[in-house]
């Protein structure tokens, strides 16, 4: 967890504006449960909440604090779907199966909205849509084909294609064209995660913080040990995403952590001139820029990835050029917060959801996990005893392992990523 600590979460806008929560104790005993969950991000907390609602005794082990993984530090952009678009799904799996995968995934949106409403989670929810700014004319045809596929195959008409000038009315910068999705939005992800944790505790879940799982034994029962205690349980759910290392061999080579960085400016008096639509925005670059306004009128901007293990020494200076390139009027603007996180990606950009016996896992949402993680957790909780059809749909997508064993995959992968990023710049 050392790398995660270097990523400045304490200095994030989200921690500075977090709703008040209670701290959870460290595990110092050996305790029994029906289900032990490793990781208190949205996957783990959603799994815990849904399992507890089914009457199970659930214990969550979190190595750091609730929500201090990707769930509490991301861009907060709520876009239904998978990193691989509808077109990609149909190309790979055909129309019928592509439609099943897409519809199963899309359920994540309503699930999250229902949880926010049912548990009265205050998380600055805005259902203002999502704009994707298209940076190269040659990419427009792809987006038109995606919108057509959504309409024709998926029966969904939420995505429209915009001209350059129509896009500028929604976000005040130059794009060659854009898309607008009416089913997206944004929220304060840490406050959502903290709300999910509270809902889980209210349903009877016990959470331990500063209690990293360091060993997983399967026989005679599942036993997950920390430095100062253990949980013995019938089932385990691994929800550590990019930070989970070494507990389960099936997982190790299938997700790759990539450092990604965000800043928040000071509150801007004319923030709505930058994004008149108040939508969530991203662009079509391989190393994507993504941004939106916060509830108090800051620009929250994510840009730049680093494939080498160390984060940039000065995260604000690392992200600033991407901000100023997008909005030249912000040249020299004040940056109040800068932090980073680890995006976990898979070779296919599809999540890795599965099980080995009574140990289940879901991770690798490849940068589109704000909605999916809550769904992933729910699907695991409902599949402890018997796989549900949703579980089977996702488990069948099992991504290929990264080439090379752990020692090799990073350098190979770094080379591939750098190549794509460079192609963008050209
Ligand atoms: C910078 C950034 C920006 C992003 N922006 C967006 C966005 O705008 N929209 C979007 O859809 N997606 C976005 N994502 C992706 C999204 O945040 C993630 O896919 C999602 O939050 C993953 O949730 P999770 O619960 O699976 O993992 P996490 O939230 O990372 O939770 C895992 C938890 O497990 C804990 N843990 C790990 N190992 C152990 C262990 N051995 N013992 C105990 N605890 C352990 C960690 O401390 C952590 O708290 C972004 C990600 C990052 C990093």
TrEMBL record:
Signal sequence, renumbered to the chain: none
Arranged from A to Z, the UniProt key words for this protein are:
Oxidoreductase
Q: Which residues form the Rhodanese domain?
A: 32-77
Its Enzyme Commission number(s) read: 1.-.-.-
| Entry annotated with the keyword Oxidoreductase | yes
- Any keyword Magnesium? no
Q: Name one GO molecular function term.
A: oxidoreductase activity
Top EC class, one word: oxidoreductase
Coiled-coil-forming residues are none
Q: Name one Pfam family in it.
A: DAO
PROSITE patterns in the record, alphabetically? RHODANESE_3
| PANTHER family according to UniProt | FAD DEPENDENT OXIDOREDUCTASE DOMAIN-CONTAINING PROTEIN, SARCOSINE DEHYDROGENASE-RELATED
**Record-given protein name:** FAD-binding oxidoreductase
Protein species of origin: Dongia soli
């Amino acid at each position: 967890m050392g790398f995660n600590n270097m990523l400045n979460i304490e200095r994030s806008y989200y921690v500075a504006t977090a709703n008040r929560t209670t701290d959870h104790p460290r595990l110092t005993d050996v305790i029994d449960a029906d289900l032990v969950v490793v990781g208190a991000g949205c996957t783990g907390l959603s799994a815990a909440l849904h399992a507890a609602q089914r009457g199970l005794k659930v214990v969550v082990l979190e190595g750091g604090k609730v929500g201090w993984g990707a769930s509490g530090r991301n861009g907060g952009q709520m876009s239904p779907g998978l990193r691989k678009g509808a077109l990609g799904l149909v190309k790979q799996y055909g129309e019928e199966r592509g439609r099943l995968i897409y519809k199963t995934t899309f359920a994540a949106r309503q699930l999250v909205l229902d949880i926010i409403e049912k548990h009265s989670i205050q998380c600055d929810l805005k259902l203002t849509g999502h704009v994707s700014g298209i940076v190269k004319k040659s990419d427009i045809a792809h987006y038109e084909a995606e919108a057509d596929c959504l309409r024709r195959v998926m029966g969904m008409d939420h995505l429209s294609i915009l001209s350059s000038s129509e896009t500028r009315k929604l976000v005040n910068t130059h794009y060659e064209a854009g898309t607008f999705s009416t089913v997206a939005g944004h929220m304060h992800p840490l406050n959502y995660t903290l709300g999910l944790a509270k809902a889980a505790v209210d349903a009877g879940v016990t959470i331990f913080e500063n209690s990293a799982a360091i060993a997983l034994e399967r026989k005679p029962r599942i036993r997950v040990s920390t430095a100062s205690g253990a949980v013995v349980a019938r089932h385990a759910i691994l929800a550590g995403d990019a930070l989970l290392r070494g507990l389960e061999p099936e997982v190790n080579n299938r997700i790759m952590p990539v450092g990604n960085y965000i800043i928040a400016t000071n509150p801007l008096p004319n923030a709505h001139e930058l994004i008149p639509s108040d939508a969530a925005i991203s662009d079509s670059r391989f190393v994507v820029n993504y941004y939106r306004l916060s509830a108090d009128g800051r620009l929250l901007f994510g840009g730049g990835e680093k494939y080498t293990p160390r984060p940039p020494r000065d995260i604000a200076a690392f992200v600033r050029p991407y901000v100023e390139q997008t909005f030249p009027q912000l040249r020299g603007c004040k940056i109040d917060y800068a932090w980073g996180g680890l995006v976990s990606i898979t070779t296919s950009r599809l999540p890795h959801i599965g099980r080995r016996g009574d140990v289940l896992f879901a991770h690798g949402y490849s940068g589109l996990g704000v909605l999916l993680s809550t769904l992933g957790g729910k699907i695991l909780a409902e599949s402890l005893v018997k796989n549900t059809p949703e579980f089977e749909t996702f488990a069948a997508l099992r991504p290929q392992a990264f080439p090379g064993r752990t020692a090799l995959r990073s350098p190979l992968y770094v080379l591939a990523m750098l190549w794509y990023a460079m192609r963008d710049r050209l």
